[in-house]
Write the structure tokens for this entry.
Amino acid sequence: MATTVEQYVTERAGAELGSVYGAVAAAAREIARKIRLAGLGDIYGAFGATNVQGEQQQKLDVFANDELTRILGTLPCVAAIVSEEDEGPVLFDHAGAKFAVIFDPLDGSSNIDVNVNVGTIFSVAKVSGDVVASVLVPGTEQVAAGYVVYGPSCVFVLTLGSGVASFTLDDSGEFLLSSDAMKMPTQGPYYSTNEANAATWPAAYRDYLATLIGGKLNDKAYSARYIGSLVADFHRTLLKGGVFLYPPTEKAPRGKLRLLYEARPLAMIAEQAGGAAVNGADRILDLAAEGIHDRTALIVGSQVEVEALQKTVHESIGLGAL
Ligand code: FDP
């Protein structure tokens, strides 16, 4: 018998966390259905409001956020959800609830209208006392993480802090185990970045990219791949190896991506698959957040590429060798 997401998590981490993953899977199934049929309904395009990040919300952003909030809100073990789309946490009146679920309901939303992969990214934190304080602590404290990529097939990837597994949505609406013990290659064939921003990156990142393009990192020949949808770019990096980088830019000096909703969950998955994730100088999972919507630079992928980048950044700011 094939294993579902909820069964897999329940067997390894107990029924409460299993129910959280079961709820995310249920919401993802509805989101996947909505995306699959988007062209047939009035679901493409802008919702007509901006989110707390000042970005135009797409109708599917709103649908995905509502769906996750609604389903997770029914679980007695969930104290709160913290969403990229909301200004603050949504608290539930569940006595003794011990988890907060932190998510980006639909990542890569600029790709929705053109039928390119988008995704849901999430992590689970333990709540003790104040919800916001509980989620600002370094990412090493995360209980678990995962993402769903809505692509040619719909895939759910997760870690419970000990390895990475993936599940594929079947025709009956169940995510079934399709790959256990996933490992990221130690060095990739791909680099993935928005090179149009390179002119405003710190020089160390331009030097690093020149090293990759010049075949000077262990004589490896690299190809470029950039979808512009983080979940999809990360998923390829996990399976094939290489590096995804979104460095600081003039427009976003602290980086564009969100520490809580994007960088931390993917960093945990990358590390659990044998890869690494840094913000340039420091390991992503060691960073505490100042606010729930903090942004960060993100360099994530195979060990060889991420370590080489970190070394280049350390040298450029005079920290010397690692
Ligand atoms: P989007 O703006 O479409 O929502 O975090 C948001 C994100 O997409 C990531 O999914 C993606 O990796 C990145 O931004 C793309 O940014 P650029 O368009 O600046 O390359």
About this structure: The mean pLDDT is 94. The longest strand covers residues 99-107. Residues 107-111, 194, 228-230, 256-257, 262 surround 2,6-di-O-phosphono-beta-D-fructofuranose (CB under 6 Å).
